[in-house]
Amino acid sequence: MTNIREIAKRAGVSVTTVSRVLNEHPYVASDKRERVEAVIREMDYTPNRSATNLARGKTNTIGVILPYNDHPWFAKLVSGILEEAFHKRYSVTLLPTNYDPVMEKKHLMRLKTKQVDGIIVTSRANKLKDIEEFTEFGRIVVCEETNLTAFSSAYIDRFHAYQDGFRLLLQKGYKNIAFTTGRSEVISPSTRNKIRAFEETFGRKADNTNLLRDCASVADGMKAAKYFFGGDRPRPDAIYATDDETAAGIIKYAKENGIRIPEDLAILGQENLPIGQVLDIATLDLHIEKLGKTAFTLFDNPDIQKKQIQHEIIERKTL
After folding, report:
1. Cα atoms found within 13 Å of the Cα of residue 273, Cβ hemisphere only
2. Residue 90 confidence (pLDDT)
3. Would you give the DSSP letter of residue 136?
4. Which of 124, 166, 238, 297 has the fewest CB atoms within 10 Å, measured from its CB?
């Protein structure tokens, strides 16, 4: 099997020079680089990248921990990461967890075993303090606000973003406002922030008359609309949905049951997803793709930094 010593001998250069050419080191004389590259092509040599990475202490690969790889929210976030990673010649490895804390820690172990140079945590199952212990093995960026100095973070001020959404509905004259969230507030900071934003905006508790949890899809949106309109509870005149997918499900139920939008029911979605653009759903755009780009930029910077992404409300026909 061809090795770099044979290449060096045939090209008339040192082993160090061959190694520098293979690792794209800039300080190699052009004539020597050309001779080495010619021999590599002639001998059809393919370097052992695992060994090279081990020797360099760098893989040029970043891991991205996410709960699902088939959800539009995370697809947009990953798209932003991929765009920046491409410019920096990094490979991206997706590490889905389905919010399993054990699986998440297994993925974090990739830092210790040097399979990746760093990890971006888009959404987590473990406490940040438990994730913090892995920062001794490599760089970790989280996509949430934190004061912990071990992490760089790219984040959205979700509380004020959600509050702006509720305030808009209030300003437009809606009084009986319901809303949906994703995961339980016990494990989801996002859900906790949305409930707090509702309660501080309207001065009343979120309960089973105005809140439905675990909604993150079109099917969930239909379930939510049936929940709010199918029982003996007061019917809402506006629903602030978890995201545009959930909002689309609410619209589908409304059309099938003679509920006019926005005359009988206003709908505010979130994330500015393609389905929301097609259905003309008013939405709170958290600029997720920019969040992903910023997260990678923070990974690629040696300093610990906190970067906030600004949100934007886009008014469309459902208000």
Report:
1. 23
2. 93
3. G
4. 297
